[in-house]
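Incident log, entry 3
Record: ABC-type nitrate/sulfonate/bicarbonate transport system ATPase subunit (108 residues)
Problem: checksum mismatch between cached and fresh output.
Input:
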Amino acid sequence: MVSIDSLTMSFGAYVAVQDVDLSVSDGEFLAIVGPTVCGKSTILNAIAGLLKAASGIVSIDGQPVRGIQNDIDYLFQDALLPWKTAIRTWSSVLCSRVSALPNVASGR
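Fresh output:
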């Protein structure tokens, strides 16, 4: 289980993310989606132990993250599926599982 409690990440005076709470149980899938420079990568880097939190706690299986986690991996969409946009990537997943969503693939 990954747990984030009141995570704040800052770079100098710039606050990248503030007071983030998140819990992901074993077997769950998480996608962090948002506009450029909203803190997605910063949160992932905190979970992986690549960045230290200004405040708050990141823990994995109840143990606080204190440095690089060698068993944590994540991929950005462009590295995984460089030919797809976000809407095409997720619409194909959704449409393959839920046939009641025919308009998702067309972006409507």
